[in-house]
Write a structure and sequence with these properties.
Structural class: mainly alpha
Helix content: over 70%
Shape: globular
Order of helices and strands: HHHHHHHHH
Largest sheet: none
Low-confidence stretches: 272-280
Mean pLDDT: 84
Strand content: under 5%
Radius of gyration: 19 Å
């Protein structure tokens, strides 16, 4: 790829979304084969298909990185466009909703850990618009803006710990692998954006990690949505939506929106030195 344009990026993101939706469908079917103790009841065929789908998402993300790392990107404007602002705002809104849901989950019985997670999500919701504005502005950023861009990175690491804390008791790795892969992709896209803020990474890493976050994030989010919808259809009540699965769904949805906005912003603004990236 000689040049990465906005239109080519849109095709890349659409491909990531389609891949994520397909994988999410498989993930939803897989989750519905687990019993109330989250132990498998099927023959494992869906597990194999999902593992193959996850591997395809990861391989495709590496392919995107190799394709765009030497691509030239014409210098763009320094300020974000309306589309990128809307994606960043959408990501912030979903993390804010996740915070509200976590507070509701922590009310009765009271959970200090749950309140802490809610505060972390509020911090991410507040930091996401600032982190999005850092893209491509390296030299003109204040020290405070650069530090704020690191907040989602540190927060997503804590959320990964929370995710694994909730699933580590389950002996079936295939039950939670998709969520762990998705959260790892979320950490990487936040890290790539923070790296761009201090001039340590460039657009290729932002675009590649955004591809991974969109495909794997949608896989996890759609799978959770299918599981929750199935529970409601089978006789559950709306109160059952106040649960860890809904919390994860909101976080993954927010991360997907942020990833799309980040990729579009970094490509539209161009690079400091087209075709080159500083290495850590």
């Amino acid at each position: 790829m000689k040049e990465l344009t906005s239109k080519k990026l849109d095709r890349i993101l659409i491909a990531a979304a389609v891949l994520g939706l397909v994988c999410g469908g498989v993930r939803g079917l897989q989750l519905n084969t687990f019993d109330e103790k989250n132990l498998p009841t099927g023959n494992g065929t869906l597990d194999i298909i999902l593992w193959a789908a996850l591997a395809l998402c990861v391989a495709a993300a590496f392919g995107v990185w190799f394709a765009v790392k030497k691509a030239a990107i014409a210098p763009g404007e320094s300020s974000p466009g309306m589309g990128e602002r809307l994606f960043s705002l959408g990501g912030a809104v979903f993390f804010g909703l996740g915070a509200a849901l976590r507070l509701a989950m922590s009310y009765r019985p009271f959970s200090l850990w749950g309140v802490l997670l809610a505060l972390i999500c509020i911090a991410v919701a507040a930091a996401i618009p600032v982190a999005g504005n850092t893209l491509g502005n390296g030299a003109s950023l204040s020290r405070g803006e650069k530090l704020i861009s690191l907040v989602p990175v540190m927060a997503s690491v804590v959320l990964m710990i929370e995710l694994y804390r909730g699933v580590s008791r389950n002996p079936t790795v295939s039950w939670y692998a998709a969520d762990v892969f998705a959260m790892a992709a979320v950490i990487l896209v936040f890290f790539a954006v923070a790296g761009d803020a201090v001039g340590r990474t460039g657009p290729a890493k932002v675009v590649a990690t955004a591809f991974a976050a969109v495909s794997l994030g949608l896989c996890a989010a759609v799978g959770r949505a299918v599981r929750l919808a199935s529970d409601l259809i089978s006789g559950g009540s709306p109160a059952d939506l106040v649960c860890a699965e809904s919390f994860q769904l909101l976080l993954f949805a927010g991360a997907v929106l942020f990833a799309v906005g980040a990729a579009k912003a970094v490509v539209r603004r161009g690079v400091r030195m087209p075709g080159e990236e500083q290495e850590n």
